[in-house]
Write a structure and sequence with these properties.
The chain has 225 residues and is mostly helical. It has one domain (2-12, 31-222). The chain has 5 helices and no strands. Helix 1 (2-12) packs across helix 3, helix 1 runs parallel beside helix 4 (87-166) and helix 4 packs antiparallel against helix 5 (171-222).
Amino acid sequence: MASLLKKIQTLISANLHAMVDSALKANSLAVFDQYVRDVEDNLANLEDAVATVGGELKTLRRKKADLDRQAAELDHNIDIFLREGKEDLALAAQSKLNAVARLLQNYDEMLKRQEAEFQALQDARLKLEAKLTTTRQEREELQALLDLARSKEITVKAIKSLDDLVGSGDSDVARVAEGIRARLDKASAQSEMMAASLDAQMDQVLERSTLEAQLAERKSRLGLP
């Protein structure tokens, strides 16, 4: 479990801004896709671990409850044996009660460790789910941004070709080329405005997702649904 939680912590602490920069420089979403696959795989393992530890926790609680009943019954029987003057039976029952009490102490310690591990796994699952949601949203925004960038690159190449036509010496060709270039300039400006809007949206998504993750963690600590 410790190894799994270490992997989860590494994924949770991943820097999305750094991944955005890397994706933009490489003009590829591969880094995001790999991160999403890693998160999904580890999330599946984490959910299995939560179920396993949760089941073990229920088993420990049930066994402790049985021991509590045994201890109460033995304590009651000792009093009966003493009232009836059956010292030997009282001694035997007291010895068994002492053994049960030691077992109960061990179960108490195991329960504390298991409950702490169960809570840690649940908290990690909430945080990882929040990070996965944020990353998927970020990937969609980045995909749109990269599409705009590719479109702008095509526009730039087209404008460069038109610049060559403008200087060709044919006034009609030059006039037509100027008109087309004006339309391309407008399209390029619109792409830049959309890209700026996407940048702002990406920052908003990151900030909102961070706030939501913080609230989810706080609700978990408070035991709220």
